[in-house]
Amino acid sequence: MAPRSGHVVEFHYDISCPFAYIASTKIEALAARTGAKIVWRPVLLGAIYRATKAPQGAAGSASDVFNPTKKSVSSRGFQRTIARHGIPHREPAQHPQKTTAALRLLYFVPEKLRPKLTHELFKVYWVHNEPVGEKASLRKAFDRCQFPASELRDRVLAAIADGTFEGSDQRHQLESSTDAAVQRGAPGVPSFWLPEEIWTDGAGNRQQGRLYWGQDRMQFVEAVLMGLNEGKTGDSLGQVSTSLTSLTPRSRRQAMPQGQEVKLEFWYDFSSPWAFLGWTQLASLQRQFGDRLQIDMKPFLLGILFREIGAPNLPMAAISEQKRNYMRLDHGDWVRWWNAINSQEGTLDRKIDFYWADVFPIRTPTVLKAVLAEPKLCDVLYRACWERNLNMSDDKVLANVISEADFDAQAILATANSDKIKQELRARTKEAKDSGIYKSGNVTGRREVIWSGARTKSL
C-alpha cells in the first residue's frame, strides 16, 4: 500500500443517540489530525434495531434492557465522558424521540451543509431539549447554522415549511444508508466504516473494509487512518509511527496524595474473556504508577452476581446476533490494540495470544477457590482459560495445570474445598454486589466503578 492521506470514513449516526452526539463533537478534529475525508451518513437507529432483532425493539433505547446496576454504572460513565470532553448536555424530558424528519432534512440539504446542520440538530435534542421532530425545531436548527442568504437557503426554508424536504429521494437515501450500516455489521450508532482497511478475520482470511461501533472506539479509527497514511494495514498498528497510547482518551490526571498509597480493586471471574483483557493490563498500570499503586485482586462468582442483580446468566446470549458477532470482533480489536501498544513500548509484557474457549461458558467455582487458596496462580489459571484453550471446568485439568506450574495441586485443591475458602468466595461475591459491580473485569478506585480493560486508561 502506497502512503497517502485523504482516506474515507463513513460516519453513521442518528440524532437520538447520545453517544453519536459525543462522536459528532470529536470526528472533525480526528479528520484534521489524519487528513481523512468524513462522509456524514445519517441512519435510522430504530430501523437498525428492528433489522437486527435487538431486544429493546425499534422504538426502544439500548439502556432499556440494562439491569439497574449496569444502568447506573453506564450512566456515570457517560457523565465522565461528557465532562472530560467539555460537551454541553441536558437530558431531554422525553427520550427517545422520533428523528425521521430531522434525518431526512439532512439528506435534503447539500452534503457540504450536512455537518453544520447535524451539529445544530444534535443541540436541539441534547442541549436545547426542543422536540426534534417538529418543523419549528427544524427551522430553528437551520437558522442557527447562519448560512448566508441565498436561493438555496430560501429553498430549504420553504421545503421545511411545506414538508417537501421529506421527498422520495430523501426517504430512499436514508433507507439506503441504514441498510448499508446493517450490512456492514453495525449493531447501533455511532458507527464508522473504513472502506480501505485491510485486516485479517478470526478465521485467518484477509478482508477489506471494516466497521467500528461506538464513540469509545474512535482511537481504533484514528490509528487505522494513520496506518493507511503510512501505507500499512490494520494488522500492522504496532508499526505506526505515532504512539497509540497518545490516542487513548483519558480522564484528567491527578497526582497521588504525597506519601499515600492508592488502591485499585480488580473484580474478576476467570469465566469472562473481557476480564481477561483487563487483567492483561494490570502490569502496565503498575509500571505507570509505581509502588504506591496497590492492586487488590478480587475474585468472585459472576454467575451468582448476575442472579442477584437480575442480569442474564450468559449476557452474550441475551443480545442480538448482530451485536454478538460485533462483540467478538471488538474483543479481537482490543487484543490487537494492546499487543500493538506493547510492541511500540518495547514488548515489556507477554503478547496476548487469545483463543475463544471451545468449552464455554467456563464453570469456574473451583478455579476461583484455587486462586483464593494460592493467589500466585492467577497468571497460570487465566492463560489456561483464555490462551491454552483448556477445559478448566474439569477438576482433573485444573489439577494438571496447577502441577505444571510447580505447585502442590493436591494441597491447594484441598484448601480450596475447605469451608473457610468457600465462605470467603461467598463473602467476596456479596461484596461485589454491594460495591455496584455488574460484570467481571470491573475495577474500583476512589469509590468509582469502571468496567472492562477497554477503560483502564480512564484510571
TrEMBL record:
Domain DSBA-like thioredoxin: 8-223, 264-328, 376-437
Superkingdom as given in the UniProt entry: Eukaryota
Protein name: DSBA-like thioredoxin domain, Thioredoxin-like superfamily
Molecular function (Gene Ontology), one example: glutathione transferase activity
One BP annotation, GO: glutathione metabolic process
Cellular compartments per GO CC: mitochondrion; peroxisome
Signal peptide: none
